[in-house]
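Problem: given the chain below (327 residues), write out its structure.
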Amino acid sequence: MEMDAAKEPILRIPDTVREDVLGYRGQVAKFLQGEIRPIAFKAYRVPMGIYEQRAEGRYMVRIRIGAGKVLPEQLERIAELDKTYGNGVLHVTTRQDIQIHEVAIENTPDVLEGLLDVGLSARGGGGNTVRNVTACARAGVCPKERFDVAPYSIATAEYLLQDRSSFNLPRKYKIVFSGCADDCAFASVADLGFFACRRDGKKGFAVYAGGGLGLNPAVAVQIEDFIEADKIFEVAEAVKRLFDKHGDRSNKHKARLRYVLARVGAEEFIRLYRQERDEIKAGGLTGRVPRIRDIGTGCESAPSSGNINDYNDNVMAEKASGSFTIR
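Solution.
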């Protein structure tokens, strides 16, 4: 059963992603019939969010959960699909994805189409793609945040995912939105990180790029002291184009954006970024520019009385008086 039209998904799936998901079943059939070689099928299925697991013939489906926000109806569908096709144990990742494990390859089309019915997708869950765009876990309710960054995270994903070039990058491209300088979301060590701030009463972001964890971790460099909030699309697209042009496609171990920064240096990296952004300013953004909309996560109420630290570590006060987060 599809989601009620009145219950709009938090992240609107672009038409191009819908087309790709609905075309996946035919590619799986060709693979099972031996018409597509395993190595070619792997290159196709991984950007669809399908990873092979250690158990022979079993696969993992990694579902994008934009900004970590998901509706009850969507969680119910994920649970149903896991019980039907997976091992019954869902995994929540550090980047706000949800994974279904031990799915037979012939059942993966049913999983992807079942997710699509409720406004969810695994497209870009793996491979050299724009990965899930994440935000602070308590975006919208944290007393420390400058403003709710979740709508900006969602809109950025909606913009980038509509372009199929976002699924053929030199390596993964991870974008993060943090609501304040505490950086609970780790924007400072992302390929692209946005920090919420205000200037002259306007919402905006300080922007950092070229960070990363894993092998040879690096802290990002600042590429913008302040951008107005509606410029996030220009910046995300400009960094994507820089990465696409200058990332090392010949060596996946040196292909992340931070290696471009290390190779050319901060000054040249920022110049290349500004060059790409200037071109976008002159020619305009391609595709549909999403509206930054209220997704029902924000709260402008004053914090509840009392010291936030008076509570158990797993019970945290929210901005709204008398409301708390339990983790």
